[in-house]
Design brief:
homodimer; Rossmann fold; alpha/beta; disordered C terminus; disordered N terminus; 12% strand; six-stranded parallel sheet
């Protein structure tokens, strides 16, 4: 974690909800306000408002490395090296690279993100800059930065956990996002903020949730981090190092 | 599982890959051929070819139940009841409803589906027809139908499992899709077909993978099913029933 003063810290909030007056949009507003009050310089990318294109395709690359056969990560590296990324991707990439903290704010759709946010990841988390080869987890391109998920769902908290009908939420259903995406590229990931049962509760209860979010974000530097694998425990082919201490690397 | 003769069985393959000549597209072709030879009536939806729109939004609904505030599942139920679903959604919904078997064929992007397929789920798995209230898992709208994932990734098999760097793949990273999506709406879900390390292996090895897929699909009726929660073990609020035998429902 950076020891720099909070004054210079930058946060990027990425919001994905189809209803501008939604509770999720209100959580993004609350996050912006709370972090700004805590001294962060905050920018927000509202993917629905900007009609972000979520479809990774050949159309993303003007000047292909392999015009005959699309290997998406290969073209990402080529375009990034050439400075020929599509402007809509480049803007998002630069904002993440310039930030110390990335916050994803979305409603749970099918125990994952809405497609518009999934496609933001598909297109923005560039092979090369974000990850590649052994540059994953604690050697990923985003090491030194932090990330956090802020989300809402209809389900109740008792539906999750070891004995819940759906099993674990953050560590289970959302593991593809917390570990497989944010952790994979090197972010330190704070415990998520999860608003349960939102469509079925009162406005008073929703307001209390926003106040809790504001309080918790004011103390984000002390918020616990999720645990991820360390490359130190795996060999050059990502095989677990045995207890005998295989130090091949 | 249905005991009807295989002659009448219908399969729907949904393909999502940005390169038409990809190995993943070849897996979809192999699946179509193998199932057709086994007597299935097969249709294929190639989401990239048809430029499927993956963004769930207010634009999906011509005649809103609540014009002032978008609640996406509410509008899905309203549009489905009215017969006013967008034609691109309605075609996909009807194809799934008319099929006995749904097969999703895609490359693993960020331990999940490409956004175009995530958005197909967001828009096509309708509240009401597919799930709703207590109509989930073994009471979901798709009970009596089967589903299966066919996917490819760059990672090697030893990177997954209890001691692998990424943890479990099908039961872990992909649990949001296998259980949280397909199982949730009531499909019986076959064990997935996973092609590992595809970009780094030889053409001969890839050909052998397609042959294995063909053989395995010829015997799909005997393919093991993934285990999901049963509503019988949970009360009306989805709380686990105690050992004392709370039969409230």
């Amino acid at each position: 974690m950076s020891t720099a003063g909070v004054e210079g810290k930058r946060a990027r909030i990425v919001l994905a909800h189809p209803e501008p007056r939604s509770f999720v949009a209100a959580m993004a507003d609350t996050a912006r306000t709370a972090l700004t009050h805590a001294g962060w310089r905050v920018t927000v990318s509202d993917l629905y408002r900007k009609r972000f294109n979520p479809v990774a395709s050949a159309a993303d690359f003007r000047n292909r490395s392999r015009p005959d056969y699309l290997v998406y990560p290969l073209e990402q590296r080529h375009a990034h090296a050439q400075g020929s990324l599509d402007p809509d991707i480049e803007e998002e990439v630069n904002a993440v690279l310039e930030s110390d903290l990335l916050i994803l704010v979305f409603p749970v759709f099918w125990f994952s993100t809405p497609a518009i946010l999934k496609g933001w990841i598909d297109r923005v988390f560039l092979s090369g800059a974000f990850y590649g080869g052994r540059r994953v987890y604690d050697r990923g391109g985003m090491t030194g930065k932090r990330a956090m998920i802020i989300t809402a769902l209809g389900g109740r908290e008792h539906m999750f956990g070891a004995h819940g009908i759906h099993g674990e939420l953050a560590g289970g259903m959302l593991r593809h996002l917390q570990q497989g995406t944010l952790g994979y590229v090197g972010f330190e990931v704070h415990e998520p903020f999860i608003a349960y049962h939102v469509p079925y509760i009162t406005q008073t209860e929703r307001k209390a949730m926003l106040e809790r979010l504001e309080t918790e974000l004011a103390a984000i530097d002390a918020r616990p981090l999720v645990s991820f694998p360390s490359l130190e425990n795996f060999d050059a082919q990502f095989r677990p190092l045995g207890e005998a201490g295989n130090t091949e690397d």
